[in-house]
Each structure stands twice: as structure tokens, then as C-alpha cells.
């Protein structure tokens, strides 16, 4: 039995803590530049390694899953359940966010002087986001479905933001393989099965670097936030403390209420056991702020620890990493109302219902857009006629909150995979590590 400090989740936690301490010391001692130049790059390398194997893993595992399924009716039923549950949990997240922000009223705690300082400091960061949001709004209503079908497999496979296109190609290849005679399709099935096993072994090797990568990522986050002036960063966190508290409270409520309810309806799994099984994936999601980068680890944990069958995990999780944004959608709701409160604007019930609809649609429509969180927020603010410039009020703490909402997004992906697997009778036994 492994000693507790040799377990992966504890090593990642140690990396997070040490990275936090390093970042704080670097800001106080004035060697932030050293951290950016010689520490942060190791975190970037770690993320790149995870992204490198995400597409091959999805392609191989999904082809193997489809060919083993050999049932088109079951495949379409699984797809309907997946998208349906994702949309329901997203709507629940937005409603929880609106409830929390209306109860706490964080905008009332932001002094006018601080508001002006934040607006002037971060105004320049909005130009590209507004333009991209406008392009998203001008797209055809069916653009989302058009974007699923790639015109070039290699172009889709070279961009992790186009994961749905890779899923589409993998399903198409899997269907094609099962349509040909068994003696012709078997070599391809054996190839992708072996290729999938190789990718899983590579995931295990990359995870040996996880504690060091997490350390470098966390140190980089703190330095980027504070620079060489830790006091300024602390003042910023203090000024936006109530807003940050509202977002975090909403995220916690969503996890405890929605996901625990999901387990009660679709399985007998305990929420605590669920978290024990996928801790490394959640911690990596928190560190990297990227569902796509964490996808290989999420798939490995969901299959090996939660007992979700490979054909479910390889189908549900890539879709979730692209369109399921529970944490991000909740943040949109809190941020939109907070900005309106800070600017002295009262939102009507109709406007808040518009937030629910717009944030739900935006979470799908802009999923493949880099920096999707801010892009989505621009779209939401435009829909309720709140000045987009107000986003400057929250950009200072967006990176930290992005880490938290990404962890919730990944938790949601894994939770939905458990629900779908249980409904399809493809949920096996859990395998939990001792703490």
C-alpha cells in the first residue's frame, strides 16, 4: 500500500501550496521576472503535454467504443441523454448564480473610487473580446451544427478547441468500421485498441510530472496577479471580495445541490466517494484552467476509478469538455448582475430571465472560442443592455475565479458521465484509493 504522501492527489496539493508560497515570496522579494522566465515555462510544458495526447486519446477510445457498441439506436440514445443532462445542469447553475448574487448584492460593496480605478486599469483588455463576441452574435443559428462537421480531419485534430469535430470524425469512422465485413474491420479495431492502450500509458508517464507542473502553474498565476507589488493585489482582492465570495458560494451550492441530486436520481454513488475518485482531475483543472488539457486525466479517472464504461466516458467527456460549462455559466450570471449593481442599474425579472436564456445558448455557441468565459459575458451583457465596459471591474480577479469554475466544469463532466453510464447499465464498481 502506498504511503499517503506518495499518492498523486496529495502530491498535486503539495505542488499547489508550494507554488502559492513561491509566488508570494517572488512578489515580495522582487524576482517575479525570474519566475516568469524560468519557472512558469515548466507549467506551460506540462499543459502542452496534456493537450498533445487529448485528441489521439479521444479519437482512439471513441472509435473503440463505437465499434464495441455496434448499435446505432443505443448510440443516438446516449447522445440525447448526454446533451439533455448537460443543458439541464447548465440552466440550474445559472439560476443558482442569479439567486446568490441577488441575495448577497456584492455590487453595493464596491466603492465608487475603486470602481473608477478598475475601469481605467482594465479597459484596454476588452477590445478583442467585444469584437469576437460580435462575430459570435452575427453567426447563423445553425452555425454550431455546421462547425461540428470538419472539412479537414488534420486541421480539426491540430486544434483542441475543435474537440467536437474530432468526436464527429471518430463516431463516423466507428460506424464505417462496423458496416464493413468483420474480417476487414478487425485489423482497424485492433489497431485503435492498441493505440488507445499506448495513450493511456503515456498519460501515466505525464502524470509523474503533475506535481512539478502544478507548482510552476500556481507560481505563475500568483506572479501574474501580483507582479512585484503584492499589496496592490491584496487591495484588489479586498475590493472585489464580496463578488468573489458570491461566485464561490454559487459554485459550491451547485456542486452540493445539483450533482448530489443527479447521483440520487441516476445512481447510488455518494458525492464524497465521487470526489475521492476524481481528485487529481479536479486539482489539475483548477491548476490549468482548461477542461481540454485535463481531459486525458479526467477520462482515465472516470473509467478506472468511477467504473464508467469506456464507450460512455469516451463519448460523454469530450462533448462535456466542449459544451458543458456549468461553472462558467454560473459565473456569467453573477458577473452580469454584479456589474449592473456596481453601475447603479436595476435589472428587471425579464432581464434576469434573459440572462438564463442567453448564458445557456452562449455556453454552447461560443464553446470553441478562445477565452470563452469573457466572450460569453460580453454576449450576456449586450442582451440585457448593460455597458460592456463594466467587465473591466472584474478582470482583476478573473484568473483566480477561472480556476475555480474550470474545476466545477470538470466535476460536471464526470458527474454526467456517471449518470449516463448508470442509465445505460454501463457503470461498474468504483475503485477508491486510501487517503
From TrEMBL:
Position of the signal peptide: none
Gene3D superfamilies for this protein: Sodium:dicarboxylate symporter
Keyword NAD: no
Lineage: superkingdom: Bacteria
Keywords for the protein's UniProt record, in alphabetical order: Cell membrane, Glycoprotein, Membrane, Symport, Transmembrane, Transmembrane helix, Transport
MF GO annotations: symporter activity
Transmembrane regions: 12-33, 45-70, 82-104, 163-182, 202-222, 242-260, 330-349
Subcellular location: Cell membrane
GO process terms (BP): dicarboxylic acid transport; L-alpha-amino acid transmembrane transport
Membrane topology (UniProt): Multi-pass membrane protein
Gene Ontology cellular component list: plasma membrane
Protein's name in the database: Na+/H+-dicarboxylate symporter
Taxonomic source organism: Fodinibius roseus
Amino acid at each position: 500500500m502506498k504511503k499517503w504522501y506518495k499518492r498523486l492527489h496529495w502530491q498535486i496539493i503539495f505542488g499547489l501550496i508550494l507554488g502559492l508560497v513561491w509566488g508570494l515570496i517572488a512578489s515580495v522579494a522582487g524576482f517575479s521576472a525570474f519566475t516568469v522566465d524560468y519557472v512558469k515555462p515548466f507549467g506551460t510544458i506540462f499543459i502542452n503535454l496534456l493537450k498533445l495526447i487529448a485528441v489521439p486519446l479521444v479519437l482512439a477510445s471513441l472509435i473503440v467504443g463505437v465499434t464495441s457498441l455496434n448499435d446505432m439506436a443505443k448510440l443516438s440514445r446516449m447522445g440525447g441523454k448526454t446533451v439533455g443532462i448537460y443543458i439541464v445542469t447548465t440552466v440550474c447553475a445559472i439560476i443558482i448564480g442569479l439567486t446568490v448574487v441577488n441575495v448577497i448584492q456584492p455590487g453595493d460593496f464596491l466603492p465608487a473610487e475603486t470602481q473608477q480605478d478598475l475601469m481605467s486599469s482594465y479597459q484596454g483588455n476588452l477590445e478583442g473580446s467585444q469584437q469576437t463576441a460580435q462575430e459570435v452574435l452575427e453567426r447563423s443559428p445553425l452555425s454550431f451544427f455546421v462547425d461540428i462537421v470538419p472539412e479537414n480531419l488534420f486541421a480539426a485534430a491540430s486544434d483542441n478547441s475543435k474537440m467536437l469535430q474530432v468526436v464527429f470524425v471518430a463516431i463516423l469512422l466507428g460506424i464505417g468500421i462496423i458496416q464493413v465485413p468483420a474480417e476487414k474491420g478487425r485489423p482497424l479495431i485492433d489497431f485503435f485498441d492498441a493505440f488507445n492502450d499506448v495513450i493511456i500509458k503515456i498519460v501515466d508517464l505525464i502524470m509523474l510530472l503533475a506535481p512539478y507542473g502544478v507548482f510552476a502553474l500556481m507560481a505563475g498565476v500568483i506572479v501574474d496577479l501580483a507582479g512585484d507589488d503584492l499589496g496592490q493585489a491584496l487591495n484588489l482582492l479586498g475590493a472585489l471580495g464580496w463578488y468573489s465570495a458570491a461566485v464561490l458560494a454559487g459554485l459550491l451550492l451547485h456542486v452540493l445541490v445539483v450533482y448530489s441530486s443527479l447521483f440520487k436520481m441516476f445512481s447510488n454513488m455518494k458525492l464524497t466517494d465521487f470526489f475521492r475518485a476524481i481528485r487529481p482531475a479536479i486539482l489539475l483543472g483548477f491548476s490549468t484552467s482548461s477542461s481540454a488539457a485535463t481531459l486525458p486525466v479526467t477520462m482515465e479517472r472516470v473509467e478506472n476509478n468511477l467504473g464508467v464504461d469506456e464507450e460512455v466516458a469516451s463519448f460523454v467527456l469530450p462533448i462535456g469538455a466542449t459544451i458543458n460549462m456549468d461553472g462558467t455559466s454560473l459565473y456569467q450570471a453573477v458577473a452580469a448582475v454584479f456589474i449592473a449593481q456596481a453601475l447603479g442599474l436595476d435589472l428587471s425579472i425579464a432581464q434576469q430571465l434573459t440572462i438564463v436564456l442567453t448564458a445557456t445558448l452562449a455556453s454552447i455557441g461560443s464553446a470553441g472560442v478562445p477565452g470563452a468565459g469573457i466572450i460569453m459575458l460580453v454576449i450576456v451583457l449586450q442582451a440585457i443592455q448593460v455597458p460592456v465596459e463594466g467587465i473591466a471591474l472584474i478582470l482583476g480577479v478573473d484568473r483566480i475565479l477561472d480556476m475555480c469554475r474550470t474545476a466545477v466544469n470538470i466535476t460536471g463532466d464526470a458527474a454526467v458521465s456517471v449518470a449516463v453510464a448508470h442509465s445505460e447499465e454501463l457503470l461498474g464498481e468504483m475503485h477508491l484509493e486510501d487517503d
